[in-house]
Amino acid sequence: MTLLTRFDYGGLEFKTIDGSWAEVDPRPGSLVMNIGDIFSRMMDGRLKARTHRVIDIGTDRYAVPFFFTPRYDADIGVNFMEPEHRLELYGPWVLDVIKNREK
Predict the structure, then answer these.
(1) Range of the domain at 49
(2) N or C: which end of the chain has fewer CB within 10 A?
(3) How do residues 18-76 score in pLDDT, each as one tens digit?
(4) Number of domains making up the chain
(5) Cβ(26)–Cβ(36) under 8 Å?
(6) Spatial contact of 23 and 32, defined as CB atoms under 8 Å apart
(7) What is the per-residue pLDDT for 18?
(8) What's the CA gap between 80 and 60, in Å, rounded?
């Protein structure tokens, strides 16, 4: 999950379902939350992880990203939408995600 503060300038875009790019409207004082593939999986696909990009609009930006990756054998089988837990290991799951990712 990524939280981005919004400023009074644009440049953040996300890929829509049809493959086109749409701009996220700048709204000062708001936050944008991007979720990743694991969070989308834990929500049974009800929330989608979107490909996004930032367009250079000639304004300085600063980012401090932090990335976390579970161990290969970590159980990621929890699903917030289903009461029953099923074992699913991160390693095989992420390899499948990468293999089937859009080109």
Answers:
(1) 2-100
(2) C
(3) 999 999 888 888 888 888 888 888 888 888 888 889 888 888 877 777 788 899 999 98
(4) 1
(5) no
(6) no
(7) 92
(8) 38
Are 15 and 50 in contact, with CB atoms under 8 Å apart? yes
Angle at alpha carbon of residue 88, lines to 87 and 89, rounded to 5°:
120
In degrees and rounded to multiples of 5, residue 23 shows phi and psi of -85, 140
Phi, psi of 100 (to 5 degrees): -100, 5
Report CA 62 to chain centroid distance, whole Å. Answer: 19
Question: What's the rounded Cα separation, in Å, for the pair 89 and 103?
Answer: 24
Q: How far apart are CA 56 and CA 53, in angstroms?
A: 10
- The tokens describing 33, both together, are 């939350």
Query: What would the DSSP string read from start to end of 11-23?
Result: -EEEE-TTS-EEE
d(CA 23, CA 55) in angstroms, rounded, equals 10
CB 48 within 8 A of CB 40: yes
The CA distance from 91 to 73, in Å, is 6
Torsion sign (Cα): 20, 30, 10, 69: negative
